[in-house]
Write a structure and sequence with these properties.
It is found in: Cell inner membrane. The chain has about 210 residues and is mostly helical. The protein has 8 helices and 2 strands. Helix content is about 70%, strand content about 5%.
Length: about 210
């Protein structure tokens, strides 16, 4: 990826301001939500085709997400596999929605993301491995058994979120789905990790404080 100094391994990347990192990661989603609320009841005539506000907002969200992810990569020198896969699915499904003027493709995107992540974790579990550990070990060191338990729980969580997204976008209004995507999915993941506090306490590893 980007050039790294000898003191800073590539896999750790370069540190950046936490606020800037949050803006780059969550800013496009917030802007998507705000733009949708402003344009949801409008229609736009472009090239002889009428596009609803949702499609127009999606068309702006995709390149904005690409630019913010590239900026994050430029500043930190790394991207996680999850970030890369998420961006690819955003470009593919967002692009399909705009190309075919059909909002259903973009609404299916969270389903595909969670099925992909859940499937990858499940595949690792079948091999007796925790792929989650590869991604998150630096953030929260755990014993081997702890990683396996957390991976099984998160795998189930991803599949549950995929089902929830399908139910909501198919049975509820677009506005309800936008609220769910913006707040519901984020809250669900936050609550999931909050409820794992006992696991982190039980299987957490003390950092080596004797290293000098």
């Amino acid at each position: 990826m980007s050039e790294q100094t000898s003191e800073q391994p590539m896999d750790k990347g370069r540190p950046i301001n936490p606020l800037l990192k949050s803006v780059l990661e969550y800013g496009p989603v917030v802007l998507f939500f705000i733009a949708y609320l402003r344009l949801k009841d409008q229609a736009f005539e472009i090239g002889g085709t009428s596009y609803e506000g949702f499609i127009v907002v999606t068309a702006g969200f995709v390149p904005l997400m690409v630019l913010s992810t590239l900026a994050l990569w430029k500043l930190t020198g790394k991207l996680s596999k999850m970030q890369v896969m998420t961006l690819v699915l955003i470009v593919v499904f967002g692009g399909l929605s705009v190309w075919f003027n059909d909002e259903r493709f973009f609404k299916m995107k969270p389903t595909m993301i969670y099925l992909l992540f859940g499937g990858l974790l499940g595949f690792g579990l079948l091999r007796g491995q925790s792929y989650l550990r590869v991604v998150m070990e630096e953030m929260m060191p755990l014993q081997d058994e702890g990683w396996m338990i957390l991976t099984r729980r998160l795998c189930a969580m991803f599949f549950a979120l995929a089902v929830a997204n399908e139910v909501i976008w198919r049975m509820m209004s677009t506005e309800s789905w936008v609220y769910f995507k913006t707040f519901g999915l984020t809250a669900a993941m936050f609550l999931f990790f909050m409820t794992q506090a006992r696991l982190f306490q039980t299987y957490g590893l003390e950092e080596d404080k004797d290293a000098s």
